[in-house]
Specification:
This protein is α/β, with parallel strands linked by helices and 336 residues long. The chain contains eight helices and eleven strands. Strands 1, 2, 3, 4, 5, 6, 7, 8, 9, 10 and 11 form an eleven-stranded mixed β-sheet that branches.
């Protein structure tokens, strides 16, 4: 498999600075403890499908201030510390979202580390991907664009279309599906006024957008990396939180996702729960369907997006290598 987890190393001839077919990418996994391994699996599988002849080394990293339980802390102990990143460069970076602890993002305990990571990525990557809350944090830090709270969670599979032509959307279908799962949104006018380019727009609103700085920053409000059952597992988690009294709102059912039978079962549970919430209703949660029942209708388009991202970095890496070679040759000639 061309994509694998690794720790940073030096003197590795396969991952030389000049080989555009070998890319080193960092994955800053900020997801909750229960989703850490699933997130690793999702990005590994997506990058593996997108690589097609390239070799990609994916290195997991963690922000130390993200709240963890014992299991989560044990798992991220196998990751590299974010402090191992500051004195090196990577070809690419992927930063996941995380569950918020504070109403205002700047009050999050991890805010200083996250903003330092944004500044580092500007100087030390060819491109970086910022997902969900990480996208909201990045545009707030760099351009002061504030997200706003939605009346209900925006969750489901939404129709999506290209909004502009770009290297990242090359070869993509004009219309496709994309999962969304979020409580917040970004104002499109504020983004475009700040120089962001909207690449894809969905029925859920802004999907993917970019800003070319020293490095290409790519932002996703949607989740191309999701597996077929990810929205189901999130919905079950949110319903459990309601039944346990950890949330006051019975979660909105993911749109265009469940079949008729599952939809009816979830509606029945909701009606009973709203008339008298009891934790024992957890036993009545609809069963997780067998593999293949839920369809990943966005997979091929997600692979194309990530394939284009890898190709973008490979092409920039090739250009940079040529420029360095030309610079050395010019210096040698001048020194004669």
């Amino acid at each position: 498999m061309p994509v694998r987890f690794n720790s940073f190393s030096s003197g590795n001839s396969v991952f030389s600075d000049s080989d555009p077919n070998c890319l080193e990418i960092g994955l800053v996994n900020n997801m909750p403890d229960s989703a850490l391994q699933a997130t690793e699996r999702q990005f590994l599988a997506l990058l593996d499908a997108a690589a097609l002849g390239m070799t990609v080394r994916l290195t997991p990293l963690a922000l130390p201030e993200v709240a963890r339980g014992d299991v989560g802390r044990c798992h991220v102990n196998s990751y590299l510390s974010i402090n191992d990143l500051w004195n090196r460069a990577l070809d690419g970076l992927i930063v996941t979202g995380m569950e918020p602890c504070a109403v205002n993002l700047v009050e999050e305990p991890y805010w200083p580390s996250l903003t330092r990571l944004m500044d580092w990525a500007e100087e030390n990557t060819l491109s970086s991907i910022w997902s969900c809350l990480a996208a909201h944090a990045a545009v707030l830090h760099t351009d002061g664009v504030q997200r706003y709270r939605l009346k209900a969670k925006r969750s489901g599979i939404f129709d999506c279309a290209r909004a502009s032509d770009h290297e990242l959307t090359s070869g993509a279908t004009d219309n496709f599906h994309m999962p969304h799962s979020r409580w917040n949104d970004l104002p499109e006018e504020a983004l475009t006024h700040s120089g962001y380019v909207l690449l894809t727009r969905s029925a859920a609103g802004i999907d993917c957008f970019v800003k070319q700085r020293k490095s290409l920053f790519v932002f996703f409000q949607g989740h191309p990396e999701y597996e077929a059952d990810t929205l189901l597992l999130e919905y079950r988690r949110d319903v459990k939180r309601f039944l346990k009294g950890e949330s006051d709102i019975f979660p909105t059912m993911p749109q265009s996702y469940f079949d008729d039978g599952s939809t009816a079962a979830w509606i029945s549970l909701r009606e009973r729960s709203l008339s008298g919430r009891r934790e024992e209703f957890i036993a009545d949660l609809p069963a997780i369907p067998a593999p293949g029942v839920l369809s990943n209708t966005w997979h091929s388009d997600a692979v194309q997006l990530y394939r284009n991202w890898l190709l973008y970095m490979a092409e920039r890496k090739y250009r940079n290598s040529k420029a360095r070679t030309f610079g050395r040759q010019t210096a040698q000639v001048a020194a004669r």
